[in-house]
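Training component of the fellowship. As part of building independent skills, the fellow (R.M.) carried out the full modelling exercise for a liganded target. The chosen ligand was nicotinamide-adenine-dinucleotide. The inputs are recorded below so that the supervisory panel can assess the work.
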Amino acid sequence: MRTIVTGASGLLGRHVAEALLAAGHDVLGIDTVAPLGGAWPHATADLADLGSTLQLVRDCDAVVHVAAIPRPTGRAGGEVFRTNVATAYNVVEAAAMAGIKRFVYASSFSVFGYPFFEKTVVPPYLPVDMNHPVGAQDPYGLSKWLGEEIVDAAVRRGAFSAVSIRMPWIQTPQTFFAGVGPRRATADSARDLWAYLDARDAGQGFLRALEWRGEGHLRVLLSAADTFMEEETEALMRRVYPGVALSRPIAGFGSVLDTAHARETIGFAPEHSWRAYQKPETEG
Ligand SMILES: NC(=O)c1ccc[n+]([C@@H]2O[C@H](COP(=O)([O-])OP(=O)(O)OC[C@H]3O[C@@H](n4cnc5c(N)ncnc54)[C@H](O)[C@@H]3O)[C@@H](O)[C@H]2O)c1
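Fellow's submitted model of the complex:
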């Protein structure tokens, strides 16, 4: 299958491109920067430019739209919003005009409001599933939600079938201890609902989403099977969210993001846990 992966030079896109290549896809990566050592053909383009997007997103069987600015911090909110919404619109529009029939969109659990809220979002119940209300407060979460809605509009008019994939913080053995490690000791860890997703499992999730043969627009939530914490989940929940009801027991370090729906629909089954990551020797 000929598949375009936007954002293929980034953290997630690289893992998606690798998973698709390993499964036999012909991948074309499109990104503003060339990949470091990627084994797939690459085209450099700014997908916020509709003309370039229309010229490049064509002649393929499927499009996986990963490119975006992945957080609202470190840049003007308006730039994050403008880039993410413009690229989503342009890539969806180009895919629709080219008659491409399968579309996968990298969304985020930030559409629920975590982790970038200004006014604290308290989960209405735990574990969080796809029935959790949408409630982004920040320009990034809002852009990811609008991206899903842009996909939905194209599906509604019959352009293609699509899967939108909501994910928590994406990690690799190389990023975890420096990125998540210090945050674990702070109250801010609850902003993430202590959730993460190994980038290799994310890659497999995108492959499964491409293989989904349903009609319409499927939205799924992925997560590692466990939290990034060293305290068991029910104890954490009693300590941080004592008033929040548990809809089912969570054993051990189990994630507070429920991925049963993703398992039932696309067959997602996370295999990697940070508990098996090798801690770099330079760290204490
Ligand atoms: N990193 C996370 O924890 C996380 C969590 C949930 C969802 N996501 C989503 O996953 C996707 C990838 O995130 P990431 O962490 O790999 O980010 P990243 O910054 O590592 O990769 C994003 C890639 O998109 C490219 N890009 C950005 N703007 C572009 C444009 N206008 N035209 C072409 N290419 C452009 C960048 O050059 C980069 O290579 C994003 O859609 C993000 O919202 C990320």
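The panel noted the following from the submitted structure. Residues 7, 9-13, 31-33, 46-48, 66-70, 83, 87, 106, 108, 144, 167, 169-170 surround nicotinamide-adenine-dinucleotide (CB under 6 Å). The two ends are 46 Å apart (CA to CA).
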